[in-house]
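Page 37, top half.
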Amino acid sequence: MIKKIVNEIIRKESRQEAINVLNQATNDEINEFINYYNDEKHNICCLVIDTIKDRLISENKMSSDGDFGNLLKKLYDNNDNY
């Protein structure tokens, strides 16, 4: 089910990373992801993946490469241009 959702809402070049992150998610995190998907809040699904990856980075289980994670840094960097 997770792979089906990811294929539907995540751009093609980021899908494998999303799957890798979600494969290491807790049951609660997966449920949160699915609940937002069911509520058609697909942007929030991406934020859930960001949050999971941030946790995995802090636990040294994943590197900070890729499209997900470091949400606050991305927000800060994007606001730096204004």
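Page 37, bottom half:
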Amino acid sequence: MFTILINENNHDFFTGYVPKEMQAELMLPEIIALGAADSETGEAAGLLIAKVVGSFLEITWVYVGLEFRNKGVGTALIERLKTCYDFVPGLTALISQFPTEDGEALERLFLGADFSLKDDKHSVYTLTVGDLKNNYFWNKELSCAKDAVALESVYDVMLREFETGILLSEKDAMIYSPLDRNKFNQKLSMAYIKDSKINGILLAEVEETGLELSYAYVKPGIATALPAMLYQAGKAAIESFPPEAVVSVAAISDVSVKLMEKMFPNLKTLPVKNALFKF
């Protein structure tokens, strides 16, 4: 078994292992795609795709051919991925999100390759914009919401100061850094500002079927920040999307899970397993 970095000269050899909607992404500059092939026959055996997201690598696709499973292909791809760290300056961790059964298999692969699991798996919830509109939370005034503002109105220097403070005080904080505001919807993404400083951030991405609240971080001791940002993001979503549009929310900690369940009684849990792996 041997592994190679997939490029424009060999990517056609592995496209059978990639969903059609992902094939066009293989050659994007932020994508690291690795292939495995049988040493004797040269037959394609597996594929791993990772996306550079700030200081993280997000594993977006792993597939091993049926006839090659349980033969070390996945492990070989993970080991080859370790040689690609130089492509991501300041790399701190790997992120994965996969359907539950696949997620468990991927977790075993990483743990077997000397990675450690930093955070417990967390839940991904889904609801509709109509659910938001009908929820009492968005039908009342929230006094702390005035301190949550859309990302489009935040100065770049404030974002840089916020990132630096997080990275210095909490090296392992799961934050997209450096934060590229153009990768997120700036009307729906929020920052919580007190005393001319950012104390929390919520990032939203617009998908084909709706909206994903993909990341949130609040400095310790700022209890009102997350409800305020969710309130303003929800208001913006209600104004921007039809009632049937889907909103997905990742709840990382026990605190955020409880908050989600309290604020959104119509939440449905998606069958996925998320993980943050440390080197």
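Margin note: The domain at 123-270 is CATH 3.40.630.30 (Aminopeptidase).
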